[in-house]
Specification:
Number of strands: 0
Helix content: over 70%
Strand content: under 5%
């Protein structure tokens, strides 16, 4: 039981760290940069861009 409790604490901690980093990235405006790059790559893959 103790080991399971430790692993769930680690999972929760990692999830919170991920959410924090995603929030910081959105605040810095990186979400739009990533989206623009994804659109360009998609256009190149199908031969339009």
């Amino acid at each position: 039981m103790k080991r399971q409790l430790q692993s769930s604490k680690a999972g929760i901690l990692l999830a919170l760290a991920g959410l924090l980093m995603a929030g910081v990235g959105m605040h810095r405006g990186e979400m739009s940069t990533v989206f623009e790059k994804a659109v360009k790559i998609c256009m190149e893959c199908i031969g339009i861009g």
